[in-house]
Amino acid sequence: MISYMPEIYPDELIFSWFCRYYVHSGCITHKAALSDILFKRCNNPSIEFIGHLQADMLSLIQKMYSLEDLVLHHTMFPQYARFIPLEQRKQALYHMAYDFCDAHHLFSILPKNETDNALKYCPLCVKEDRQKYGEAYWHRIHQIRNMQICHKHGCYLHRSAVSAKSEQLFVFLPAQQYTDNISVNMASNPIEFNYSEYLANVFNAPMDFEKDIPIGAVMYYAMSKTPYMKKSGRTKYTKQLTEDIQTYFKHLNIPDTASMSQIQRLFLGERFDFSVVCQIGFYLNIPDNQFVNPSLTAKQIRQEKDIHYMRDKEPVDWTVFDEDTAPILERVAREIYDGTASETGRPERVSEKLIYRELDLPKHRLENLPKCKAIFDRYTETYPENWARRIVWAYNILKAEKNGTTFYWSDIRHLSGVKKERLDLIIPLLSKFADSKTVNDIIEIIA
Ligand SMILES: [Zn+2]
């Protein structure tokens, strides 16, 4: 029975809060803390969201805070859901707060680049937090993608040793122990600092759950006052805009710059990437308020929609799209395949359905994208192959976790989600994914 949860700090990630629970509660092992907090032992603590909570923990937390508030102010939800269509945004908030839905089912979460795939921190915030609270904690604002500078102190963020992916982690890594680099390196270019402030403002602004104003329309009207839109309002110079944005942000050392197809698909209402919106907005000097609190009339929205349907003068160039999307698809497919993309860390089968969902692609689109299709084909596997791979994965986890004590087929079944009736198909495939000793050990347990 859990009786105590510490207070959550301003802008603290829920993961960080749970890490502090682990430290404060005196739970001796990560495993004990995990089973206090999470519904299933095989759940990973979610770094960016909440995860599936255990009933006692849930009722304790609900006495302290509303779940919707926690999602909005203590997870990375605003980064992913701010610009998605209104109905999807409302559903996402509901499912995340009340169904413990895996966020990957609610909106697109592209894999992170190599700078953003570890938790980041500001040495001066760490110092202040230690003075004020007696301990450091993981701040949400520092984890925004492409965020390199603390918007409060103006110094570069440090990358910690803690992975920001939901990997097969099963441990709590408190900021207090992983924020030792206190060297302060101030940003010398004021534009870099202004960009981090812009990101922070867009991220922190209250989210709207009433007005249905598509971000594509907001963008259209914002662009109409810039040289990137013809006077007729018909054609946007998207190619020129992309090249200018890429040059500009590469100069600022921002690792992920918006691609042409990302920008086009934002205008077409097919994608809603936070960093793409922020890069266009910052580059074009559009006040952040125009994005976070747009004030278009119903007539303006309708007009934009009409133009939108007529806008076939500049159709998406699928060859460029294929080129742009291939590296993203490679990361997405790899993370589904190796389990990084799932909150339980379980390796999944890379299906067309999953790929279409993650990349917001229309059905059958892969057929016209040869580079992407080739990557997809490389990751394709049969169901029995996937089951075999999951069993090997579960075996390795249990072996490490049980530390020499016996475990059974039921443990493997729970973790892998594979049913016994399928074993005759699976056993011959095990050797594709494990050495012969492991295969023999597994067969001994499951056969
Ligand atoms: Zn700071």
Would you write up a description of this structure?
The protein has four domains: 165 residues, no CATH class; 100 residues, 434 Repressor (Amino-terminal Domain), CATH 1.10.260; 62 residues, no CATH class; 64 residues, no CATH class. The longest helix is centred in the C-terminal third of the chain and has 21 residues. The chain has a two-stranded antiparallel ribbon with strand order 1-2. The chain has 447 residues and is mostly helical. It starts with 13 loop residues before the first helix and ends with a helix. The model has no long low-confidence stretch (mean pLDDT 89). The site of zinc ion (ZN) has 6 residues, from helix 7. The site of zinc ion has 6 residues, from helix 7.
